[in-house]
Amino acid sequence: MNKDIRELHDALLDIIGFMSRPEPDVELMSDMAMPLERALLPLLVRIERRGPIGVVELADLVGRDYTTVSRQVARLDELGLVVRRAGTRDKRVREAEATELGREMADAIDRMREQLVSELMADWTNAERRDLARLLKRMAAGMNEWVARRKTEDDE
């Protein structure tokens, strides 16, 4: 494997591992007025960003099975953080969308994560932060395109 690609892969694994650790989320939840189960945080944020979104698409985004995500979205609905309804394009698809309370909670999560990342990048220049964000967005776009192509090929 190309050394640069290997180092990138290792760095991404480390970042994913850090973001998946319970400690940052436990700290976030302890500061929240309405604590959530840890597994619901990333779902709420993704629904807020991408909603309305179907449960199958959401499950694909987070790498979990449909039935687990469906139960978790139902829990977010019970808490009043999302609403579920028939899809706008396909009435058979159930979509989730953040409520006002859900958007407020996602904003609070964003602010807390921003504080954490700001501490971790305190000695970075603004240009370095912008470059990292630009390059990661570019990589993410390529990954999303790859996934979309594979789905198109599977559907054919």
Automatic annotation (TrEMBL):
Cross-referenced Pfam families: HVO_A0114 (PF25212)
CDD domains hit by this protein: HTH_ARSR
Annotated HTH marR-type domain residues: 1-141
Domain of life (superkingdom): Bacteria
Example GO biological process: response to stress
Alphabetical list of Gene3D superfamilies matching this protein: Winged helix-like DNA-binding domain superfamily/Winged helix DNA-binding domain
An example molecular function term from Gene Ontology annotations: DNA binding
InterPro entries hit by this protein: ArsR-like_HTH (IPR011991), HTH_MarR-typ (IPR000835), MarR/SlyA-like (IPR039422), WH-like_DNA-bd_sf (IPR036388), WH_DNA-bd_sf (IPR036390)
First and last residue of the signal peptide: none
Keyword line: DNA-binding
Name the record gives this protein: DNA-binding transcriptional regulator, MarR family
